[in-house]
Amino acid sequence: MIWWCKARGLSLIAASTLGTMLTGLAIGNLELPIPVLTGQSGQFLLAHLMTLIPAATLLYGLGRGDSRATNTALRNIRHWDAALGLLTAAAGAAIAVVCYLALDSDLAVILGRNVASYVGLALLLHPFLGYQLAAAAIAAVPLVLAAGGWRPNGTPETWAWLLHDAGSALALLFMLVFLCLGAVASIARPQLPLRLRTHF
Questions:
Q1: pLDDT for 199
Q2: Do residues 186 and 127 lie in contact, with contact meaning Cβ atoms separated by under 8 Å?
Q3: Is the pLDDT of residue 120 over 90?
Q4: CB 3.0–4.6 Å: which of 66, 123, 152, 154 could bond 85 by disulfide?
Q5: Helix 169-188 vs helix 77-103: crossing angle, to nearest 10
Q6: Residue 74 phi/psi, 5° resolution?
Q7: Which of 128, 140, 112 is nearest to 54 (CA)?
């Protein structure tokens, strides 16, 4: 267990989650200029982009070590990895709730929701793409949604969950779906065989 905690970088994940939430609240509604390909430009916050950081550190932790060697261990760490992702999402959500109650800020809700959504996507993509490609794919998500997720009246498209306001039930549903699918994919990912090299 201690080895797994060190290998996955739990302290780094915890620090990045807390730091992202507090920094996002500190910078407030700072907007980023993103070129829009469809519709009319809406509000794209720096907070929409920076909430990638906990998911990126989670992927970094999941990518450390030799996956073939760890898959042959007696303990199945795939359940632990899924639990780590869900715990990271829960931590972001808990910090968001505390900050919302203390500051009455809708931005706290958006930060917590987006952190959890990105973590769910990280868990979902990691088994199929590996940690490097999964990180690149997740990093492209906010840029794609910001460029093509706006309607002509400046409101976000239904599928552009990242751009929805704090009270959006649809964005919450997206977050829950990402987390559920990500946990299932993380637990059910194929177990790679250990390849041994022989030298003569």
A1: 46
A2: yes
A3: yes
A4: 123
A5: 160
A6: -70, -35
A7: 112
Give the pLDDT mean for 74-96: 85
pLDDT in tens, 102-117: 888 889 999 999 999 9
29-47 per-position pLDDT tens digit: 888 777 766 656 667 788 8
For 28, residues 6+ apart whose C-beta sits below 8 A from its C-beta are 107
Torsion, Cα of 32, 33, 38, 39 (10° steps): 80
Distance between CA atoms of 61 and 198, rounded to whole angstroms? Answer: 30
HSE at residue 116, side-chain half, CA atoms within 13 A, is 27
For residue 166, give both structure tokens.
């704090």
Cα–Cα distance for residue pair 166/107, rounded to 1 Å: 7
Mean model confidence pLDDT for the chain: 82
Count of other CB atoms within 10 angstroms of residue 68: 13
Q: What is d(CA 7, CA 63) in angstroms, rounded to the nearest whole number?
A: 9
Q: State the DSSP code for 199.
A: -
Question: Which residues does residue 45 pair with via DSSP β-bridges, in sequence order?
Answer: 31
